[in-house]
Amino acid sequence: MNSRSGALPPPVASLAPGRTGAWRFTVAPLDVSVPRIRHVVRDLVRRQRAPLSGDRLQGALLILSELVTNAVRHAALLTSEIGVEVVLDAHGLRLSVEDGHPYRPRALEANPERQHTSGRGLLLVKAIALETGGDCGVEPTAAGGKVVWAALPFDAG
């Protein structure tokens, strides 16, 4: 998961057995989907009692909002549904957003080109993920679209 070392560092805090899992949602590529999925994911993470501080949870929700907003704005013509996956495991929280557009955002590359003015939201995603000791990236799908993801470790116990 982590492009710097190949894996996230060992967790300081962990999630109780039975509270781990993966949840997948689909939303329409509409602006109204952004706050709706943010609230669903916030409630899910709280219900699972993930060891995330309020600040870290807000950072995760900001990341989610940015990723879903990008899918709505840039992939709606090629995407009938946006996939959102939430994974809670012993390492932390991973948020993934899948759309049907083939473009891979450059802002998540190791050294994004500075002359581009777009992608600032993704630079924020990257900064939040890296600041917490997590990571982010983009992967192609078999259908020609992409999955943009961010992983955040749990807070120290």
UniProtKB/TrEMBL annotation:
Residues 33-131 form the Histidine kinase/HSP90-like ATPase domain. InterPro entries: Anti-sigma-factor_SerPK, HATPase_C_sf, HATPase_dom. GO terms for molecular function: ATP binding. Transmembrane segments: none annotated. Keywords: ATP-binding, Kinase, Nucleotide-binding, Serine/threonine-protein kinase, Transferase. It comes from the Bacteria. PANTHER family: ANTI-SIGMA-F FACTOR RSBW (PTHR35526:SF3), ANTI-SIGMA-F FACTOR RSBW-RELATED (PTHR35526). This is ATP-binding protein. It comes from Streptomyces litchfieldiae.
